[in-house]
Write a structure and sequence with these properties.
The complex is a heterodimer of chains A (287) and B (267).
Chain A (H helix, E strand, L loop, with lengths): L1 E11 L7 E12 L3 E6 L5 H8 L7 E6 L2 E2 L5 H8 L1 E4 L12 H11 L4 H14 L4 H4 L9 H13 L5 E5 L7 H18 L2 E6 L2 H5 L4 E6 L2 E6 L1 H4 L3 H7 L5 H11 L11 H17 L1
Chain B lengths: L15 H4 L2 H17 L3 H18 L3 H8 L3 H14 L4 E5 L2 E4 H27 L2 H12 L9 H31 L9 H7 L1 H24 L18 H22 L3
Antiparallel strand pairs in B: 1-2
Classes of the chains: A alpha/beta (287), B mainly alpha (267).
């Protein structure tokens, strides 16, 4: 069970002077249960890439397969395969339209033909997931909420679809640090509890480095690096070329190393960094 | 895809036609349109056709794009041809059921369809070779004399600029919302008419909200930069008549006078 992209190429406005190739000859396999982060500079093709994963865009060349089914064949199988991939777009709060929060979250499951009792359960669970009190918010209009709350309602609307794969395109863009941490903690929880495959698009290395177990770095429509975070951060030159930074902690440690501290610089979280610095200082004292 | 529609249909380039002063281009278009309606002989029509063809080649806009511009008005042309073929009185050459086709009808139909095609091609040639912003700029300049009669020239031009500016943005927005709702299982393309109209609600509500939000943001941004309408406003790029324009004016004058002479001598 996996999502597979074979030689996928996509060009916007083909055959006009505005033609622009967004992704070139991409080969990619994302397995079940992975937590993948796709990072890249603005315009590197990451948003275009993820829109292929649930069949919203059809590659000009190549194919997309989800759980062994070609997404662009006709029939029920392809429809079911598309439904197993949920997608949260950039600024998802702009897609809200219903009169109440409850109805908006229920929109997706109802479209899938889920029976009403099950819809109710799913809405409750999804609202719990995004930290919105069911009793307080269910009958509110989504347009009376604050930006952060609207974002959470929109994410709940996709989570309620209970997709096997969940794609999030910059879910934290424009949120305060608190809201951002909240969303990311919830994602890690969802990943652990339900084994949902999570594909996260971001341009911020600090956010994704500590969560994802696989990083894909996009550069000019192609995959420039693909591997575990620790491996990726060894390729500083390639990262620079792609226009993404190593996490600030990693950057700090490598500068300490240059300054003469005997230290392991391939570290991704603040906690680990603290431990490593203390250990190295102790070693220095003892000798 | 919605974004494949190129409304405003500007075709970027640096040809002679692109470099002409937009004010003059609008005037040429008006003159040519008048000419198209005045002349009525095969000789003069073929001259205008050649002139149009010559301008297209000079503008370096691909022929395919020019032909595509006729497409949206295709039905109007067909309709006009049919009406003229069947309703013009004259010498009958064929009969279909109770309708008769006359020789004069065929001539009239051919004439009218050429007129229509020329009108469309020439006007789209203007939008192909002039960016929307310069076009509205030129319109404002041309309308300025009418300010005396209370015509808000600057405001009209500003409204047009804003509308043109937001067409692609709103199309993009529509596409984005459509995709987002499709990803939540919405269906925009199947089912009965009632179902489809209902299906538009998840698209239209967010679209209107975002359009109003954008309008509001834009208004605030304009106010924050002290926008107060057209009074005493100067421009960074001032429209200027250049040597290319003088040459074009000369060619245009010769051509129009030529047409007029032919018309007078009844050729």
């Amino acid at each position: 069970m996996s999502i597979i992209l074979k030689n996928a190429t996509y060009t916007y406005m083909a055959n006009t002077p505005f033609e622009r190739t967004a992704i070139k000859d991409i080969n990619l396999e994302i397995g079940e249960g992975e937590f993948v982060a796709i990072i890249g500079h603005t315009g590197s093709g990451k948003s275009t890439l993820v829109q292929h994963l649930n069949g919203l865009l059809k590659p000009n060349q190549g194919m997309v397969m989800v759980n062994g089914v070609d997404l662009h064949q006709k029939g029920e199988a392809a429809k079911m395969a598309k439904r197993s991939v949920g997608m949260v777009f950039q600024y998802p709060e702009h897609q809200l339209f219903e009169e109440t929060v409850y109805a908006d979250i229920a929109f997706g499951p109802r479209n899938l033909g889920v029976p009403e009792e099950e819809v109710d359960k799913r809405v409750r669970r999804a609202m719990e997931f995004v930290h919105l009190d069911f009793a307080v918010y269910q009958d509110r209009s989504p347009f009376q909420l604050s930006g952060g709350q609207m974002r959470r309602v929109a994410i709940a609307g996709v989570v309620a679809l209970q997709p096997q794969y969940l794609i999030l395109d910059e879910p934290a863009a424009g949120l305060d640090p608190c809201g951002r941490d909240d969303i990311f903690t919830k994602l890690i929880e969802l990943h652990k509890k339900t084994e949902t495959t999570i594909i996260l698009v971001s341009h911020n290395m600090d956010d994704v480095a500590k969560m994802a177990n696989r990083l894909i770095v996009m550069h000019e429509g192609q995959i420039s690096l693909d591997g575990s975070p620790k491996e990726i951060f060894k390729h500083t030159e390639k990262l620079k070329a792609a226009g993404v930074d190593v996490p600030q902690v990693t950057a700090l440690l490598s500068r300490l190393k240059v300054a003469g501290l005997d230290i392991d610089e391939h570290i991704l979280t603040v906690d680990d960094a603290v431990k490593s610095i203390i250990a190295s200082l102790r070693r220095k004292k003892s000798c | 895809m919605l974004t494949d529609i190129t409304i405003g249909q500007y075709f970027p380039g640096n040809s002679l036609v692109h470099r002409l002063d937009p004010r003059m281009k609008i005037m040429y278009l008006l003159l040519l349109i008048t000419a198209i309606f005045i002349v009525n002989t095969p000789m003069t029509y073929s001259l205008i056709c050649f002139f149009t063809l010559f301008t297209i080649l000079l503008s370096k806009v691909p022929m395919l794009m020019v032909i595509k511009s006729i497409k949206p008005l295709w039905w109007i042309i067909v309709f006009t041809v049919l009406i003229h073929i069947f309703t013009t009185p004259g010498e009958t050459i064929a009969k279909v059921w109770i309708l008769s086709i006359t020789q004069e009808g065929v001539q009239q139909a051919a004439l009218m369809s050429i007129r229509l095609i020329l009108l469309i091609v020439l006007s789209s040639l203007l939008t192909f070779t002039t960016s929307p912003i310069t076009l509205t700029d030129a319109l404002e300049k041309l309308l300025t004399p009418f300010k005396k009669f209370g015509l808000p020239a600057h405001e009209l031009a500003m409204m047009m600029t804003i509308a043109l500016r937001f067409i692609p943005t709103l199309l993009e927005e529509t596409e984005r919302i459509m995709k987002a709702q499709e990803a939540r299982g919405a269906d925009f393309s199947s089912g009965s008419i009632v179902k489809r109209v209902k299906g538009m609600i998840p698209l239209l509500v967010p679209l209107f909200i975002s359009a109003f939000r954008r309008a509001d943001d834009l208004a605030v941004a304009m106010e924050a930069r002290c926008y107060r309408g057209g009074e005493n406003r100067t421009r960074m790029k001032v429209l200027r008549i250049t040597s290319v324009d003088y040459k074009a004016m000369f060619v245009m004058a010769v051509f129009l006078v030529g047409l007029f002479m032919l018309k007078v001598y009844g050729l």
